[in-house]
Specification:
With 134 residues, the chain is an alpha+beta fold. It is built from 2 helices and 8 strands, in the order E-E-E-E-H-E-E-E-E-H. A hairpin with a 2-residue loop joins strand 6 and strand 7.
Length: 134
């Protein structure tokens, strides 16, 4: 099983950062929370900091973890470990994605998400239910 991490980044308006995978790559044209594979000898938190720096040009503070998701794609099984993160520096730019957008929980269904991210969306909907957003 491949260990994968993703960053769940929320802005002050209560929206979450979604990233569109590039066409021609695995899951191209689908939205995801940014992240990537954990390298040998690397902690999940360190992997996430590295991946978000590479993919988005930002520095992050890794906060709480959400419930992991085990998923099997045609290429094999992954364990996706989502973490709540806060951007602490850098300039947000989609270096490895076609686009990025900020998405409110009520709008999650308007995007075509990668299957392994769907349980994370459910967790976020539950956590944010009843919140009054600015």
């Amino acid at each position: 099983m491949i260990e994968v991490v993703c960053g769940v980044i929320r802005n002050e308006q209560g929206c979450f950062l979604a990233c569109l995978r590039p066409q021609g790559k695995h899951l191209g044209g689908q939205w995801e929370f940014p992240g990537g594979k954990v390298e040998t000898g690397e902690s999940p938190e360190a992997a996430l900091v590295r991946e978000l720096r590479e993919e988005l040009g930002v520095e992050v503070a890794v906060r709480d973890s959400l419930e992991s998701v085990c998923w099997t794609y045609d290429r094999g099984a992954i364990r996706l470990r989502p973490y709540l993160c806060v951007i602490t520096g850098g300039n947000l730019h989609p270096h490895e994605h076609e686009r990025i957008c900020w998405c409110a929980p009520g709008d999650f269904a308007t995007l075509d998400w990668a299957a392994a991210d769907l349980p994370i969306l459910d967790q976020l909907r539950q956590q944010t239910a009843g919140e009054i957003l600015p």
